Amino acid sequence: MAGARDTIVRFAGVEKTYDGESLVVKSLDLEVARGEFLTLLGPSGSGKTTTLMMLAGFERPTRGEIFLDGKPVAKLPPWKRDIGMVFQSYALFPHMTVAENVAFPLGVRRMGKAEIAERVARALAMVRLEGFENRRPAQLSGGQQQRVALARALVFEPKLVLMDEPLGALDKQLRESMQYELKHLHERLGLTFVYVTHDQSEALTMSDRVAVFNDGRIQQLATPAELYERPSNAFVARFIGENNRLLGTIRERFADRCLVDVAGTLVKATAGNVGGAGAATTLSIRPERVAINSMIAQDNEVEGRVLETIYHGDHLRVRLALLGHDDFVVKLPNRAGQIRLGPGQTVKVSWLAADCRALDAE
């Protein structure tokens, strides 16, 4: 995407260390396209938040340079970068009204009263908070406070909006609702959003692209569908969505396909980030891509023993013992006529080679 549109942000060989020894961010090269919704996703300590803080200007790179609209900004203070910022804590002024909170960045920029009033009204309309101008933060719900914080970040029409875990303090239902609101707001405004989260669901729901961080490096940068369907390594497969992991050894490889020995059984798989014959591998298979007692022929068919069945409302999770592993999970839709499976029952478990990726051994 960054190649298809002009680039607004570029990290060039950026590194960050706090103690002079261990690198929190390692040799980061990253481009963000204008108008893109890019999410930095990863576990705690992976480098995603430090990357965002360097872009915002709250941290300075140890090495490398950050470019905003083609201009180096690594040494530029935050208030000179024309960037809007939304934090998990909202950071609203409790003694100010909603309108005063939203107007604050405009007052700092010494805009006239008429223009401030017009921009505040427009920003509150963007986030559907008309009529809340005179309320104080304590009189608002968590979701409404988050919208005020977002309006404040948008009111001065920045070229870039950064968000650091902005939905983390909300309950599950409100968080999911706000995900769609942010996505639709981004689509309407056409602004560039860079968003940090450890929540894979948020990343997959809202983003144009996702950069998956681990150990200070980007493990994969791709669209949500690409990450889920074709993870580049075992870490990404494990971190993005649920997946079954079968440990084995490559017996034969044919271009993009391979045969893998798993506990003495040959499994047909798609060759991803893996070596040739004799190499250890981790097979990745999504639980919803596996069938139980299917009448339709599949590339792989093995016998499994049911360990437990857990009811999840819209689907059933069946945990099985097979191929030397006792943590293999299958998701079955909860529908009329679905056969109930009990512990100890022997079943036929099958899946396609296209849904089974051979990746690096963890």
Characterization of the model:
The chain is α+β, with helices and mostly antiparallel strands and about 350 residues long. It is built from eight helices and 20 strands. It has helices at about 50-55, 100-110, 115-125, 140-155, 170-190, 200-205, 225-230, 235-240, and strands at about 5-15, 25-35, 35-40, 65-70, 70, 85, 160-165, 190-195, 210-215, 215-220, 245-255, 255-260, 265-270, 280-285, 290, 300-310, 315-320, 325-335, 345-350, 355-360. The strands form four sheets. A six-stranded mixed beta sheet has the order 6-7-8-3-9-10, with helices on both faces. A hairpin with a 2-residue loop joins strand 17 (about 315-320) and strand 18. Helix 2 packs across helix 3 (about 115-125). The radius of gyration is 24 Å and the shape is globular. About 40% of the residues are buried. The model has no long low-confidence stretch (mean pLDDT about 90).
Unreliable residue runs: none
How many distinct beta strands? 20
What would you call the structural class? alpha+beta
H/E element string? EEEHEEEHHHEHEHEEHHEEEEEEEEEE
Gyration radius, in Å: 24 Å
Mean pLDDT, to the nearest integer, reads: 91
In which order are the strands of the major sheet placed?
Answer: 6-7-8-3-9-10
Could you describe the largest sheet, including whether it forms a barrel?
6 strands, mixed
Proportion in helices: 10-25%
- Described by the principal axes of the CA atoms, the overall outline is globular
How much of the polypeptide forms β-strand, as a percent range? 35-45%
| N-to-C CA distance | 30 Å
